[in-house]
Amino acid sequence: RDTTPGKMFSLCSLSYLGAMLASNHALQHVSYPTQVLGKSAKPIPVMILGIIFARKRYPWAKFLFVLMIVLGVAMFLYKDSGQSKKSDSDSLIGMGEILLLVSLTLDGVTGAVQERMRSDHKTGANSMMFNINVWSILWSAIGLIVTGEGIAFLGFMERHPSILAKMVTFGLASAAGQTFIFITVSTFGPLTCSIITTTRKFFTILGSVIIFQNPMNSRQWIGTVLVFMGLGLDSAYGKEKKHVKK
């Protein structure tokens, strides 16, 4: 029987939605490459807030290996100023950057709550997925009512009824993907999941480079080496040693 308190599911879904909203709204102030670059640091707040709120402990080597992965992904995904549009503001920290920081912080909160579910209540993947999504529907419904976007959405569906089939397809695909995400969270922890989702874009682009023989500059090669070194070292030496009682 699942003993996870409903408030944990509620908080987790709220922080998850908040992170997504902040990240999407950041695109109004910064370019997409900047947003992707900022979100590549997701494992760092997941680690920090996991330590603070979930009492998680990591070996010091883990911090180094995760930092190598994050830096490698950032170097690989970084677009030179001539390749991407600049943000609306020339200041170092603008509204877009603040929203990205909020998004990353909420990502960390989500990871910390999931870690508490996993460690304190042994919450299963299906239970976690179901309850978090139920609460997400509730929070989203409240948001649609308060902002009035729900009425606008119904009007949009009335004008474009074919969108319903696309939404169903998108929902089914998302549910299938979420199944594996929550299995990863419940089995290996939110930090491992965040590393996987962070490196996903890296491996997608790297795959296109290999398949279509797109050239990479020296910075991207260094980033690639850092990612593979970080992943390899983390796999070999980043695990917390378990003391076996004799």
Automatic annotation (TrEMBL):
According to the record, the segments passing through the membrane are 61-79, 91-113, 134-157, 163-184
Q: Does the keyword Cell membrane apply?
A: no
Question: Topology in the membrane?
Answer: Multi-pass membrane protein
Instruction: Spell out the Pfam families in the cross-references.
Output: UAA
**Sorted UniProt keywords:** Endoplasmic reticulum, Membrane, Transmembrane, Transmembrane helix, Transport
Nucleus keyword on record = no
Q: Which SUPFAM superfamilies match?
A: Multidrug resistance efflux transporter EmrE (SSF103481)
Record's subcellular location: Endoplasmic reticulum membrane
Write the signal peptide boundaries. none
Molecular function terms from GO: UDP-galactose transmembrane transporter activity; UDP-glucose transmembrane transporter activity
The family line of this record is: Belongs to the nucleotide-sugar transporter family. SLC35B subfamily.
Q: What is this protein identified as?
A: Solute carrier family 35 member B1
